[in-house]
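call fold(seq) -> tokens
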Amino acid sequence: MREFFQYFYYRVYTWQLNLWGESRSPQTAAVYAVSTLMYFNLLTFGILLDGMKIVNLFEEGPTPVLTIIILSILLYNVNSSWLKRNGRYKQIAKIYKNESKSVRNKKLALIWAYICLSIIVPIVLIMLIWW
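ret:
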């Protein structure tokens, strides 16, 4: 899974780099993308726990909002230190720079499938559990 997120980071980083250049900090945008995808995965897990009545994720009050904020900041900081610190993003770019077009297309298809599932699954779970 670590390699998948690293490759996802690389694809977002190169896309942002080609789109805006270094001036818009493509490495930061890529960290936000990885963190958001991970957050959706954790949300899915939380929805499952809530559906099984193990936790009350959607209770009223400040607790869920505070949890979401803390988790978001934590995910961003962990991913930032893993992917950006000490120029790590340049090392990641070197790893995947010379991949063939067919390998790139296969990996991009997997990334898009994973993104779609990461968004669709929580929505479907919410509909199944609460309706």
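The two ends are 32 Å apart (CA to CA).
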